[in-house]
Design goal:
alpha+beta; nine-stranded mixed sheet; 26 helices; 37 strands; 39% helix; 25% strand; binds adenosine-5'-triphosphate; binds magnesium ion
Amino acid sequence: MTSSQIRQQFLDFFQSKGHLIVPSAPLVAKNDPTLLFNNSGMAQFKDFFLGNGTPPSKRIADTQKCLRVSGKHNDLEDVGFDTYHHTMFEMLGNWSFGDYFKQEALTWSWELLTEVFKLPKDRIYVSVFEGDKKDGVPFDQEAFDIWKAIVGEDRIIYGNKKDNFWEMGETGPCGPCSEIHIDLRNQDEVESIPGKSLVNADHPQVVEIWNNVFMQFERMADGSLVPLPNKHVDTGMGFERLCMAIQGKQSNYDTDVFQGTIQYIAAKSGKKYGDEKWADIAMRVIADHIRAIAFTIADGQLPSNNKAGYVIRRILRRAVRYGYTYLDFKEPFLHLLIPGLAKQFEGVFDELISQEAFVAKVIYEEEVSFLRTLSSGLVRLDKLMEDCSGKVLSGDDVFELNDTYGFPVDLTALIAREKGLDIDEPGFNAALKAQKERSRKDAGASAEDWVIVNEGDEVSFIGYDSNETDTQVLKYQKIQNKAGVQYKVVLETTPFYAESGGQVGDTGFFVFATSGISLPVIDTKKENDLIVHILSDARIETLASEPVKASIATLRRRAITHHHSSTHLMQAALQEVLGKHVAQKGSLVNEDLLRFDFSHFQKVTDEEIKQIEQIVNAKIAENIPLLEERNVPIAEAKDKGAMALFGEKYGDFVRVITFDKNFSVELCGGTHVPSTGEIGLFKITSESSVATGVRRIEAITSQKAYELLSEQEAVLSEINDLLKAPKDLVKAVANLIESNSSLQKTVAAYQQKEISGLKNSLLKEIVAGPVHSIIKQVSAPTADALKNLAFDLQENQENLFVLLAAEIEGKASLAISISKGLVDSKGLDAGKIIRELAKEVQGGGGGQPFLATAGGQNPAGIPKLLSLAPSYIV
Ligand code: ATP
Ligand code: MG
């Protein structure tokens, strides 16, 4: 069975059991402050388990792209070395939201594995939670009884809290799990060592394939467990491991999921997979990493220097270095794997094929730049090893290589070993830890439990239609972050738009009905799909129980709205002018401006900018009314030609914003003008590059645009006045510039003439002595001219000391030149002498033994230094 068929059969099976099949959420986690990347199938449904919002169905199944390279789940170091942990993998999952529980979940998993996929029953082991006295959670009798009836007691393993009790985080939903393990060893080995003893023992052929989590408790901030009113099922099965089992392989990399990529790499390197330990590891690493890199970029996360972007960059560098060292790939190669991968996932994760060229280009540029630091890093490492007095390269050196040149520590260790050196790994870890500690401190945040004020969990947003409302506080939470103590407040209904889709959150006021006290709302954010108002006034703790009138700052909102609608018009215009490849890569809309990042490989020319402005302003003048459709099924929205927005989360129903159905149709949750005429005016203020293949345009609208234009007009009119209102202003300025430059040329010619006159007269004033000298104050237009004069005076001289001083624009300038012969025979040094003499004019300087210059604040000291000078040449 091919991997595509396996995936499809999984989905079909759960569909036949009444599950709604949904697409994977993007890899990059949105609206969740605790996650950089989705690392499990349940991440996109977290809200439903937390009781915020209702799932589109009580039974859901899907395949979710997961990434386990940071935070709680980090498998990176195992990848490539073992055969069953990946950075990115697909997690097949089925969910029950307060619907079926353990009986159905476990029975179905057995039916699917043994009847549909026909996996051998005698190779499967299951685990149940043994209980934990300290935590007060009992043995999972229910799961035990169900399994006993299916597989018999001797195939059940008792798991401890570490392996068999799942928690969402420090607080939140949790419960026991039941895992399914499979023994894929050869018959001989199975007969000599029983599989049961190898479960959870890191054996590469006795692996966990499926985990069934039963959420039945909530963990409170004080550590206690409270039973959940609605019990849920959350399961996750590793797709690549399942393929290995069904296809009868002993490594995930031997399945058709990876073989295409591996064979390509093998052919390109001229090596055969399976021949050499390190080349094999490198091929596995690359075949694995390229998926993580490609899909994260396709989901909108570009490699960068911090956070999620840095995680991707590190993975990419790790892949490049394995290729460089073990496969001799000295030129960029990762990007070549993209077309094959895109094809492989067509129809499953289409985001890759639709952005194939863009993703490949981003990867290529990253490769080029790392291959550059890779070789300079190697030079640096050579130097460090040369300077190393003992046999061990210090932890700080290893850290420097890691931090500055992006060298993974194992690469440093490897090269050091070739030179007979070790590395101080504990020292490196300490330096790394210190750095992590620093960044953790920077983040330094804490939160208390939510305080429930009023019952209710349906929160409604009315901000598309109203600017204020009478409502009540549902709950609030005190938090501590960089900004100090703040409060997150949740209302029953709210007109406040929470920051999302690039649009900033609303600000405004809460006026409490009983006391009449008004508190400012400083921001509004979305967290796990809950609208959270941010306040900084502690009085909320006592006022929260009063009815409240919530009002947004309407003028600010209106300016934001102008920028948001303009963004849509501009995106459509960009597609018309630059082409259909233009896709949104990021967006910011606030009261001051709009900023829009999009894929495009060249600079947008001035002419194109002008066309874009013209189109948008024409659409504004047309006064196109807004067509806002809420709750449109996603398929219908796509038929209308809606451009899916960057990284938007899956939802069954979407909002479609249309300004002229033949011009701009987009999925969007933001706020918009009732008709485009309200925007008034649109003006682009800058165009720049943000990353490889990504351009950024900033623009302003309405009042802001008008202000900019009037400022520019005022400047023009001032210039016009200064030039006495000529007929043709541009021509007048051009004439001015031209006559200025010809005047400068004339002046320079005069200066040159004067200086050569000066030179001739100075030569006549040479004072004879053991060392001939010219020591004199002169007048020179610039310090440079003075220096040149001193230099020129040495022409044909063998025994001449020259010191010239001048007062130029209120400051002292000095220049000394000494004949080459004197420098050699008498050891005279112009640099040293000038530093001494410059003290008289409160200045400093330097240069070479035969020519030096200095400047000083105090020209009054010139006569004194001239009189001191002869003493240096006797
Ligand atoms: P393991 O102990 O093997 O690392 P886990 O306990 O971390 O697994 P879960 O968090 O329960 O795994 O995830 C559910 C399933 O996802 C696992 O049963 C496994 O099949 C798969 N899985 C987990 N981590 C990875 C990974 N890094 N690469 C591939 N598949 C994975
Ligand atoms: Mg794990």
